[in-house]
Amino acid sequence: MKQDQKKGNPIALLPLLVFVLLFIGTGIITGDFTAMPIPVAIIIAIIVALFISPKERLNEKVGVITRGAGKENIMLMVLIFLLAGAFASVAEGMGAVDSTVNLGLALLPSSLLLVGLFIVCCFISISMGTSTGTVVALAPIAVGIADQTEIGLALALATVIGGAMFGDNLSVISDTTIVATQSQEVRMVDKFKVNFFIILPGAIVTAVILYFISTGFSTEVASGLEYNLIKVLPYLAVLIIALLGVNVLTVLVGGTVFAGIIGFFDGSYNFTSFVATAGEGIAGMMEISIIAILIGGMIGLIEHYGGIDYLLHFITSRIRSRKGAEFGIASLVSATDVSTANNTISIIITGPLARDIADEYGVDRRKSASILDIFAAAFQGLIPYGGQMLAAAGLAAISPVAILPYSIYPFTLLICGVIAILIGFPKKLNA
Q1: Selected residue with higher pLDDT from 130 and 324
Q2: Which of 63, 64, 129, 396 has the largest CB neighbor count within 10 A?
Q3: What is the per-residue pLDDT for 110?
Q4: What average pLDDT does this structure show over 42-70?
Q5: 312 in helix, strand or coil?
């Protein structure tokens, strides 16, 4: 630890505490964790922050907010969010989601239905870049499978959520990956390689467990699922090109145009409908973009008042090694995700601090980016008030608490993250 590390000011963290209490407190009191819109909670927290350090002029504080909100990494993040929304919407509108889902299900042996459902969800989510979108797309299929077989509804839904979290954790167009890589200033392809080898054992163990759980079930499903291989190409193209290291902005623009061209030829789009669909996708990412900007402003004030220095000092004063630093990063993002019920927001909040801790203790930034994404995804899949769990439960009309006991993959993901820190995996990063 550096001897000149500033101790900071714990009072500066009050806006963050207000934000968490508003969001979680409202959810607990009302029983609805969507009752308090996140942007409203952040704005209230910012207003509270303005009363800290009353000797400073209001104009100076507002300037701090705008500079924090307008930082280069925040603006780049917002641009990527918007382009990712356009691609996802255009690809879905020309039938890519339905074709990809049906293709996977049509190729699955009935004896491997649960395992296959998990794998399909992994592929869909890694291609779409959204766990919630994957859950919404595939939860109805899980309900249908449960209706047609002896597989329990909660187990089928938990399988979908697990696969969705796997893909969201890895996808190069996922907002969590975008935030994790941008906050740690690493390339997506580099983070993907590190992340993949850490979580792969968890996915394999999950598939094995699902196989043994489903042994003996009647798993025959209806035939006649329709798909078009051409419509699967946009997802494959985005995945392959991104993994080759092409700039993510180029990947997203290219993927959107490619999906649009296929839509033009098969009659899904004309120019007007293509533009309208892309616009709808962009509009769908407005809230997360606004949240990122507002949080950037709030964190700017917290940093200005000395809050980030205090957290950094508090954590680093208890860290004695690189391994301790990695556990510190994991604990920070996990606690934030449990508090906010949003894995993207938790990474946005903790990312800058995680980068400072990584630099202070020699943690490879590829590893810190992976830790942020892994632990945020794991806890997001284990909290019954998370968006993914609520979406699945709502579509199936069951309690999210009923799904929780079957959340196999999020639990194995958490174990993989802990083991990777304990044994210093991947070893080559520590060379």
Answers
A1: 324
A2: 129
A3: 64
A4: 92
A5: helix
Which tens digit of pLDDT belongs to each residue from 100-134? 667 766 776 666 778 888 988 888 888 777 787 77
User: Which backbone phi and psi does 187 adopt, to 5 degrees?
Assistant: -75, 145
Residue 283 neighbours by CB distance under 10 Å: 13
CA distance 253 to 243: 16
Residue 101 has a pLDDT of: 65
SS3 content of the chain, % helix, strand, coil (to 5): 80, 0, 20
The amino acid at residue 221 is V
Q: Which amino acid is at 418?
A: V
What residue segments make up the domains of the chain, in order of their start?
A: 73-284
Question: Average pLDDT, whole number, for the chain?
Answer: 84
**Residues with Cβ within 8 Å of residue 387, at least 6 apart in sequence:** 132, 341, 342
The tokens 């899949």 sit on which residue? 381
**Residue 7's Cα: distance from chain center in Å?**
32
Residue 56 corresponds to which tokens in the numbers above? 């400073």
- CB neighbours of residue 49 within 10 Å: 27
Burial class (CB in 10 A: 0-12, 13-18, 19+), 417: buried
